[in-house]
Each structure stands twice: as structure tokens, then as C-alpha cells.
Amino acid sequence: MTIGNIPKDIRRKPSRRTNVLVGYLPTTQLLHVSSAASRRRMLANLFHHCFSRILNPLKDAGNTGVEMTGGDGITRRTLPLFACFVGDYPEQVLVAGCKTGQCPKCDIDRTKLGDLNTTSSYRDLQKVLDALSTFDDDPAGYSATCSKAGIKPIVHPFWESLPHSDVYLSLTPDVLHQLYQGVTKHLVAWVTAAFDKKDIDARCRCLPPNFNIRSFAKGITSLSRLTGKEHADMCRILLGLIIDMDLPDGTSPIPLIRSTRALLDFLYLAQYPVHTSETLRLLRQSLRDFHANKHVFVELGIRENFNLPKLHSLIHYAESIELFGTTDNYNTEYTERLHIDLAKDAYRATNHRNEYAQMTVWLERKEKILRHQTYLEWHPGNTPGVTIRPLSMGYNGTLTLTKWPSKKAVDLDEIVTEYGAGFFREALRRYLVLSKHSGPPLTSNQLEYAILYTNLPFTSVPVYHKLKFTTPADSGRTKHLTLDAIYVRPERQTKKDIVIPA
Ligand SMILES: [Zn+2]
After folding, report:
1. Alpha carbon of 315 to ligand 1 centroid (Å)
2. Gap between the Cα atoms of 366 and 360, Å rounded
């Protein structure tokens, strides 16, 4: 759980701990229940019941307020409300209590999901609440009443009595699953189906190596099970790959390019970290452009319809951004990352038996340590003891060399070529001139002249690959501690011809 008034650049840093774990949900599959239908119902009821318990404090707090002390030290009466639920599609379906395949937010017909112009409105919360309230009066007809209102017969969904909340509004866009793993995944498949796969892969291979763009050496048509990151990398080159490419049977490629471009525009506009009315207008326009040109995929026989819940979900993006801020405020990538920190790592810290209590203790301790550390950093009187200076920052260490050099004699040429010390000779000559010189300081001309006419009386030098900085001799210690060390080695080859870089 996180709160809405934290700036997003702080929220997105897991180290700032702006998301806190409020509970673990049971992972039981209820396998002892033989009927699949009743098992699903029970699991949904269990989920909602757990959530009700977790969010129970929000009921009174949202109605009458609680006193909270802000970062500025002022205590105010605060009314915390349940505003957003961040989750992927199956989680949204579970929360909204609708059927898989439907839009969890609005009442659009499943067979019209691919149509931009079908009018739909947000699910009517009051109608749903009225249907849910018939449970005690008419248990026999409960299922039918709920079904008419567009909700599964859940007994007391968790959002039922949360003040000033509309669960259907609170479901947020999900860039990772809806756009990258959803719509762009479809788009790449449609586009590669429209053209010759060999042509597309050949164009992929032609891309010159570039620092920012991943090169798909084997092309993109044969890849499967891709991550969101890989889809993002593909989207960067997709339009460039297909531009000016001919469709097999002489169909005009213009609508295809337009629809691809429109979806890519939508993808990038939807991720803007800041929006204006103009960028939101462009976001809506790019979706209209896609729908105006999508017929090309039907004409090419790639799709029969566009009734995909993920594609439909784009309709709700602009309004969600207006309501809750830009999409990076409710990105599921952060919560997936937190799943590792707060569930997987916590589990690993246990002995895997009766782990639940151990996990909560582990988390509690971690949070306490962090809170204490934050306090120490903030407290003005404590600063000297808290600043931990990295050891490498201490310059008063004693320079220590090993007794014997790593290499007894390295040719001066090799120092330049292999060790990369390009001006070693000049620097050594300068050192010799300056250390021999006595009398008034040399002018820079005299110094250059002296350096030029100094001959080095040897052609090789011993080389040390390691320097150590140890605690100073006057520190009173009997044993010197190593504060820092520097290792320098030229590139070398192992016996198996593996090159280890410098
Ligand atoms: Zn919808």
C-alpha cells in the first residue's frame, strides 16, 4: 500500500520504502473442493474477505478522519480513501467481480470490445451495491440478481463499505501487461504475419550496431516468450522495419503503416511523465487513428475481430490519467519488484517451516532498522557518528608494495602498448630531471629542454600489479590494516585461449 501524495520520483525508488506491505494473502488453491465452480467462488470470497479485513481501518478513517503527522511536523485530521487498485487483468477481474473476457471498468458488451464507437459507461456502483444487499433477504435469487447487475455473487466484496470509493474507477491502466505484453505483442504478431517473415528478419540483421537499440541478430519473427523489455526493444525498430515494404498481393500498405504508427504513438504518449491537454488530445487521437485503419488486418485475413480486453482497455487511459496522474504513478513493475523484496526474500530468510511468523518478524526488523537509520540521518546532533565515509576516501594511508615485483622486467615499449601508460617515458624523465635539479626553479622551456636531452639508462623496469594503502605507521596499531588496494593488469590470455581484458 502506498499513499497518493508522495511525489512519484520518490515513490518509484524501492529504497525509499514508500510502499509498505500490509498483509500476505493465503495461497491455498482449495484443492479439496471437488467442484471447480464452487472452488472458484470460494477463492474469490476468500480474497475479498482477506482484503476487507486488511482495509477495515479505512472505513472509520475515511468517514470521521484520523490524526496524522506529516513530513512538515504538523498534525492534521486526515481522511484516507481507497483510490486506486494496481494490478494485472486477472487481478482486476477478481476485484471487480466481473467475468473473464469482460472489461472490469465498464459495461461494454464482450462482442463490442474492439469497437471504439460503441458507447459504454462505467459500471454502476449503486446498482451493484443494491444487488449485493439482497443476499440476506433473498439468498435463493442472489445469483440471478447479481448476474443481472453484472457482478459475480460475491458475499461482501471488500469495496462494498469503503467510503467515497468507486472500485470501477479505481482500476488503473497497466502499461506493462496491457501495452507491452498485450497490445504490442499482438501488433508485432499482426505485422509480421502481414509481410514476408524472411524480409523482416533480413531487415533486422541489416541494422547497424547502436548503443541504444538492441540488435536482433536472428530477426524478430521466430522469438517466443518475450519479456516486456524485449517488446519495448522491438517497438523501437518496428516502424522502421516495415516502412516502404510491399504487401504480398499488391494491397496498399498505407493503412497498415498508419495503424502501426498510431499504436506506437499511443504506447509512447501513454508513458509520458507529464501531460498537458494537448498530449492527452494526441493520446486520444492516436487511438482513433488506429481504429480508423485497423480494417487492414481483417482484409489481410490476419484477424476476424478486435474483441480483445487489453485493446479495449486503452479507451480508459486518458481518463485515468486525468483522474490519478500519469501512468508511472501506478506501474505494476514496481509492485512486481516489491514482491521479490517483501515476499521472496522474506521467505528465503526463514527455515521454510511455519514461515509466516518468521517472515513478518524479518520484515518488521528490516523496517525498524530502516526507520532508525532514517532518524539518525535526520537528527542534527547525530551527524558525526552517522556519516560513514567509505574507506577509499581516506588519503592518509601508507602506500605499501609487495616485497617482489609482479614482473621483474617489463620492456618500456610494453609499458606503453600493453599497460596503456602512453607517456611513461616522458613522465619518468621529468621525474629524474626534477629530482636531480637543485638551484633556482627551471622555466618551462628549460624543463622541456632538459627532459628532451635526458636519456633513460635502461630499457625495462620492474612492475608491480598491486598497490596497497594500509593504516598509517603512527596510528599505534601493531598490525596494519589494508584500507584500500589498486590492481592493474594488462590484457592476458589463459591457457585455454580465453582473453581476460585489462
Ligand atoms: Zn471498459
Report:
1. 7
2. 10
The residues near 287 (Cβ < 8 Å, ≥ 6 apart) are: 116, 262, 266, 314, 315, 317
Task: Say how far apart CA 241 and CA 233 lie, in whole Å.
Answer: 13
Distance between Cα 123 and ligand 1 center (Å): 9
pLDDT digits (tens, 9 = 90+) for 262-280: 999 999 999 999 999 999 9
Which residue carries 602512453 as its cell? 422
Q: 195: CA distance to ligand 1 center in Å?
A: 32
How far apart are the CA of 184 and the centre of ligand 1, in A?
Answer: 19
> Helix, strand or coil for residue 124?
coil
**Distance of CA 314 from the midpoint of ligand 1 (Å):** 8
167 Cα: distance to centroid of ligand 1 (angstroms)? 13
Cell numbers for 9: 520520483
Q: Tell me if 226 sits within 8 A of 276, measured CB to CB.
A: no
The per-residue pLDDT for range 34-86, each reduced to its tens digit, is 998 899 999 999 999 999 999 999 999 999 999 998 878 899 999 999 999 99
CA–CA distance, 491 with 497 (Å, rounded to integer):
12
